[in-house]
Design brief:
With about 500 residues, the chain is mainly alpha-helical. The chain has 24 helices and no strands. InterPro entries: O-ag_pol_Wzy (IPR029468).
Length: about 500
Amino acid sequence: MTGFSAKSGFRNTILFGTTLLLMLTADLLTAFGGFFYETAANLMFAANIVMNFAIVCDLIPNVRRDFPFLVFVGTYNILLLGRVYVSFLAHYSEILYYLEAENFYNLFVALQVVTLCLLSIYAAYRLAGPMFAKREKSVRENGWAAVSQNPLLPIIRQISTVVLLGSSLASFYTLMESILNVLRSGYLGSFTQVNAASIPSAVSRLSMFFVPSFAVFLATMPSRKQLKLPMAVYGVYLLATLFTGRRNTFVCEAITILIYFVLRDSLNEKSERIFKKRTVVGGGILAVIAMYLLQLLAEIRAYGLLSHRSFLDTVVNFLYSQGASFRVVVQTVNNWDLFDHGMTWKYLFYPFELFVHNNLITRSLFGLSPILEVQTTAFVVGTHNYAHALTYLVDPLRYLSGGGFGTSFVAESYVAFGFLGVIIVGAGVGLILRFFASMLTRSWIVMASCLIALRDFVYIPRSFAFLWVTNVFNLTYLCFYVAVYLAALFVFRLGTHVRPVKRAQGLGEEHP
């Protein structure tokens, strides 16, 4: 943790103080009702802008350490607030229509929820600093010496590479079935039916090791030469996922890999670093181009033809469409009185319910049936999946035709426990994001788990609050880690017995 800076302290006092003042003033104005609701919504929007500016200014001085959190702030603003920015700046006269709010008071509450959530996340992130100060200092001062030097890592790297290449065949087969299902039924139609394709059980199980094997491979901190083949295979797989029409897998994985390499680059001496100031400019340009191409993909998926919009209009439309997660929050506020608040807490913990039902061991132990998510009336009446429940509540026809609002950890926290839930869940997210800042100093198992969790945290503004828990502590992944460790330990101990004998027989020197 860096020392206190009077300059940054003064700046933060002014900016965050202004944020809190705007939030409190907006909340006070709602007591007067009528026209003041619109003013309150405008002030809350202004508070959000000032707060984001304050956060970015505070992150820049330690951007390498704080890069995971900076990326999270970016995805939070795009996925939850992209539509808000476009609507306020370009469609203010019809803002209630564009943001799907029933009135300005509901718009104010929705903005208050997302602003308070991000503020809670950042406060927890900063307050958690002393807990990880020693490891963060080690990265700054010791570089690569701060990374784990476990002698098993070279063996673990080789094992994970073999598993990655073997499971890639099964993963490509499974992915091809998904692509064919979309081609047969259309993008929206693929959500309204269970995939009828028969994937052999052995292939399905083998494909499950593809993601963890790649995470373990990266966690062993391979050299550039060792990275080439696994990265090429994984890159081809990610590009192929775009043919399913779903962009989130490619984007989340690409961002996770970027975070990994930025943190890894910070271990190098300054003269040897790849990510420098000039790289940021190129990265920003590539990000805008990526937005343009991803939006084109979405329009081809929806309409089957290329857009005639200009480059700028397409990028703005990307921000507007990606910011659609805000409507999950605003529709939660609109329909607040229609929920049974005695059971809404179940929406927050749905990933655990899904895990218990779909895990072979727990399903057999408790006599449960697997949950197959498909957009039908029969499924939605009994599910605690908030994405399904909210969409069906607001627009049943849209839901049954394959459309949906999706979900958001912010909306789930709010509908479950109100503002208190938003603050507590947000603080938990901030704490874990601080943990990621020093993940390269952890053991290979912890680092692999962090890489898997990062994918969920990048996408959590549009995902379940606790999906990362069941993904990280997946029994298949945990068993895989144990198996890799035991195999590496066996090979290592076997080598310590074999190599001395070889030297005694004059069969050559021991290889490093």
